[in-house]
Amino acid sequence: MHSSAGSTVWYIPDGYIPEDSSGKLASHESVCVLNSGSMDAMAEFTIFFEDRDPIDGIYVTVPGRRTRHIRTSSLTNGTETIPVGIPYAIQVTSSLPVIVQYSRLDSTQAENALMSTMAFPINQT
Amino acid sequence: MHSSAGSTVWYIPDGYIPEDSSGKLASHESVCVLNSGSMDAMAEFTIFFEDRDPIDGIYVTVPGRRTRHIRTSSLTNGTETIPVGIPYAIQVTSSLPVIVQYSRLDSTQAENALMSTMAFPINQT
Amino acid sequence: MHSSAGSTVWYIPDGYIPEDSSGKLASHESVCVLNSGSMDAMAEFTIFFEDRDPIDGIYVTVPGRRTRHIRTSSLTNGTETIPVGIPYAIQVTSSLPVIVQYSRLDSTQAENALMSTMAFPINQT
Amino acid sequence: MHSSAGSTVWYIPDGYIPEDSSGKLASHESVCVLNSGSMDAMAEFTIFFEDRDPIDGIYVTVPGRRTRHIRTSSLTNGTETIPVGIPYAIQVTSSLPVIVQYSRLDSTQAENALMSTMAFPINQT
After folding, report:
1. Radius of gyration over alpha carbons of chain C, in Å?
2. N or C end of chain C, less CB within 10 A?
3. Does ipTM come in above 0.90?
């Protein structure tokens, strides 16, 4: 039985899905969640914008002892998705402690650009 | 009613606005601020240099439940702006806890380069 | 006699070994471990996946007052290695506190893309 | 009178000065130090390697209310400098709390690659 580690609330202020892709790889963002514990975790995503109310009610299960690398373009609450080319921010809350890292690949130009950072944790355990 | 999260003081030592742009995207930096709480936050920016006194008195409002992705080239206290091509550093102090991430896109060459990091928090709540 | 610093458990959710390389440099990831203390540290790596059980039992010695920049493609428990082109995550546990940073060079296209972040620490001392 | 903020000990495990440069910008690393307080801080750099004893006794002054963006290739204790093309790690200790960020520009290929992360703090105040 492995215990969970990390935090239950994480923030990523700089969300942005590039509009354009070229070269061999598509522009995308990944929210990478690691559940080091034995029990499954339920993560809820809330999406913040500059000029409208947040989208919430987006749920992703991260099984115990597994990682999920989640493309932000795949996130949906059933009716809404994250628009491309718009600045936004991400809150992840989890039923159990997890670790969250954010990465973006931008292939607007043929050659790629990469960035990555740990999300910012609240309620660390 | 959502409570605020994060810190009220954040630092970014490596500020730099590239002088040149080429290709499809312009070189720029973004200071991305997320206010997860319901009340509006007032953020003050102080800009530090290598060889002169800081610039302060730069204010930006971040409404409740909103994010702002602020281009550093847009920051002004009414009389001064951040010069391009000069190493500098950023302090953000906020009236309420927020989360701050810093990103830079460098398009000096036609292909893009990206970097990002969470700002460094003081007074975390 | 120098004392050790950092943490004994670190996490990196976004592991990925690019399949392709071009240009002058090969695509790779590095897990960079710094042991600031005088005594040797033994680090164990556990590799998490999206759809299978973790690989563990991968050991690397980091001598006292030394750094090791470890290519993830070199990690093995004697029978298994990390497959390329597959999302995964990394746990590093160490017998003594160390500091861990993760970096990736992607040369899928001829020009390079770089990303780096500190790993996420648990049990900081 | 402004008080200092940050930490007095910082670590950067992934140090590396690229051997090659091309295009408009030279490959380099910067250790960016911000001294938000009114009093001058004295920073000492210690350089760790994979297969030899550390170099220490490298001192840099960071004046009060100033930032210094220090190229690692400029660091010297009077007799030694950091060799290019060799994996190494950095410890920064400061007489007063400061904030430290690390960035690398790699122009091995004509197009640039960038990475950045906050250094890892010990003894935060």
Report:
1. 15
2. N
3. yes
